[in-house]
């Protein structure tokens, strides 16, 4: 088969790669029909995720068709169209038993495209298929389902729910890339009074308004002052960091009001300064997290009901064999205007 293989920082290739095979009885082999690229893949290519070693197939967001299933798989069958979740879950360990699938101790968690070969390929082995895939109804397109593999549950769980967004609150989303836009989309489910998007790219600020932000700002020296002016001089109730660099995390901590919440979603590859000299007295809660995908089934029902406009997220479409071109477009999002790219089997 062909697959997108990581060869160390800054190096990738779309190349011949061995076909996946069943290893455990709970595995399934899935033919990849649609796949996308995540900002985390770009972090890997920058060398920010040392656990991902050269020779690994990247990718953790895909929709496909089951072509083979192990003897221990009962929930999906050959021919089923499924979503392959970014998080694999053994379903048996202590963390899985309480819905903390991202911290799975039984061989799951974020493994696809991280510590085992991922989904940016023509076929993929999906471990724990019963608890790590979702059968898709006919009413949900492959493209719409792609958003449920990672960005919608991540923004909803790690940003909105962990940040405890509530009706009438003010929310700042630092970073208006795909995750930030998904945070805006899912925050709106809780009717906040104001959502402020912050991004250095004007195209993404414009997109944030299309997705429901009430205001957008660049992250310049006046940003914090302007946010204070919009929030009675106090700052926002919830600041969601959706980039993953020190500057954006530190900005989020400057925007939050006393008693507020900073919810970090971004994947960080470098240390950030935690300004406790300012924060210690402000009763600020800071949360971090890896998505658990406990919300995927709920978000799938909402997608089937037409509650999310998936077409607004996907700005560029490619054939699967155009993987390198898709990466180039996604990596230059400030120039290309790319939000989410989708690649399809042709």
Structure report:
It is a single chain. The protein contains 13 helices and 15 strands. With 346 residues, the chain is of the alpha/beta class. The protein folds into 2 domains: 2-149 and 292-344, Quinone Oxidoreductase, Chain A, domain 1 (Alpha-Beta Complex); 153-287, Rossmann fold (3-Layer(aba) Sandwich). Strands 3, 4, 5, 6, 7, 14 and 15 form a 7-stranded mixed sheet that branches. It has a 6-stranded parallel sheet with strand order 10-9-8-11-12-13, with helices on both faces. The longest helix has 11 residues, at 151-161. The protein is globular. The model has no long low-confidence stretch (mean pLDDT 96). Pfam families: ADH_N (PF08240), ADH_zinc_N (PF00107). Keywords: Metal-binding, Oxidoreductase, Zinc. Residues 12-343 form the Enoyl reductase (ER) domain. Its cofactor is Zn(2+).
Core attributes:
single chain, 346 residues, alpha/beta, Quinone Oxidoreductase, Chain A, domain 1, Rossmann fold, 2 domains, seven-stranded mixed β-sheet, six-stranded parallel β-sheet, 15 strands
The CATH topology assignment of the largest domain is Quinone Oxidoreductase, Chain A, domain 1
Sheet-strand content, in percent, reads 15-25%
Please, what is the average pLDDT?
Answer: 96
User: Span from first to last CA?
Assistant: 14 Å
Largest sheet: 7 strands, mixed
CATH-defined superfamily of the largest domain:
Medium-chain alcohol dehydrogenases, catalytic domain
Structural class: alpha/beta
The top level CATH class name of the largest domain: Alpha Beta
Total DSSP helices: 13
- Summed up, the domain count is 2
Helix content: 25-40%
Q: Low-confidence parts lasting 5 or more residues at pLDDT below 50?
A: none
Overall morphology: globular
Question: Mind telling me the C-alpha Rg?
Answer: 20 Å
Q: What is the count of β-strands?
A: 15
Q: Specify the CATH architecture of the largest domain.
A: Alpha-Beta Complex
Helix and strand element order: EEEHEEHEHEHHEHEHEHEHEHEHEHHE
